[in-house]
Amino acid sequence: MAAPTRPKRAALLFFPRLLFYALCLCAALPGTPSEPVVAARASEVSPSSAALHLAPLLKFKIVGKYPHDPRAFTEGLLFADGFLYESTGLNESSSLRKVELTTGRILKEYDLPSQYFGEGLALWGNSLIQLTWKSGTAFQDDMHSFALKRQFAYRGEGWGLTRDKTSLIMSNGSSDLAFIDPKTFTVQRSVHVLDRGRPVRLLNELEYIKGKIFANVWHDDHIAIISPKSGAVTGWLDFSALRRQLPPSAMDLNGIAYDSKNDRIFITGKLWPSLFEIKVMKE
Q: CA-to-CA distance for 226 and 208, rounded, in angstroms?
């Protein structure tokens, strides 16, 4: 029997959402208590500093800029068949989206029930796998219709999600990455992510690119490049200069997508008005 389509929630009023975003921004500002709202996601938060990154900084250049919904609290991002697919977070505002790259236009959207906080997103076959933060639930949706196929349960928090040829790869805010069987959602193995022996905590949104895992680090303007075999960080990308060019409302760098057919990497962030195409120089 065909899976039922998932009804779209009525749109939320704009001003309550704007107020909530403002509270999130305040929680991220220096000198502001980092409790409830978003910053309650982890017990250990260290200030971001390039000096803390031991593996080499890699050079890159920005080769393209595209519109991005400045109200999208980006938690997961991928590129497939010419379109972006995006998971957005926040309770009562989380969604799954299909987005046109060149215009940023939302072509299809499903709003998650209000109790779910959307997180990482990965494509497996013709299915989109979307994590939730604290609910211990992952949804498998048809990539074309967004119809729900099934859902999985897992322990702990869900943060980032990507895939290699055989497994889903999941982060939970710690320094560990779990490799997961996409059929059963059971953990096959895990790696401990280290930068020259130092654990890299708060691993967030993930993307598998040319045999390496690219990972956002929460509250950090850098992306870690990680060996999936050993967990070793082989390099960093520093986007702090780019962040300084964005409006104050733009929050954490969080969103990496890879167009494998055309060898293009895209990055964005929570409440960013733009999405950028970058080219990484050879290591």
A: 9
Q: How confident is the model at residue 21 (pLDDT cuts 50, 70, 90)?
A: very low
Residue with tokens 């967030």: 204
Side-chain-side CA neighbours of 25 within 13 Å: the count stands at 16
pLDDT tens digits along 50-94: 456 899 999 999 999 999 999 999 999 999 999 999 999 999 999
Averaged confidence pLDDT in the chain: 86
Q: Edge-to-edge, what's the strand order for the sheet holding 148-153?
A: 118-124, 127-132, 137-142, 148-153
CATH annotation of 51-280:
2.130.10.10
Contacts 24+ apart (CB under 8 A), 58-61: 58/225, 58/235, 58/236, 58/237, 58/280, 58/281, 58/283, 59/280, 59/281, 60/237, 60/278, 60/279, 60/280, 60/281, 61/278, 61/279, 61/281
Q: Which two tokens stand for residue 9?
A: 């929630």
Structural domain boundaries in the chain: 51-280
- Is 254 in contact with 48 (CB distance < 8 Å)? no
- Scanning the structure block, which residue is given the tokens 């999941």? 170
Going by C-alpha positions, the residue among 134, 158, 273, 275 that lies closest to residue 206 is: 158
CB 216 within 8 A of CB 226: no
pLDDT tens profile 124-175 = 999 999 999 999 999 999 999 999 999 999 999 999 999 999 999 999 999 9
8 A C-beta contact, residue 61 and residue 278? yes
Task: State which amino acid sits at residue 105.
Answer: R
Residue-wise pLDDT tens digits, 132-142:
999 999 999 99
What is the total residue count of the chain?
Answer: 283
Judge whether 52 and 45 are in contact, CB under 8 Å.
Answer: no
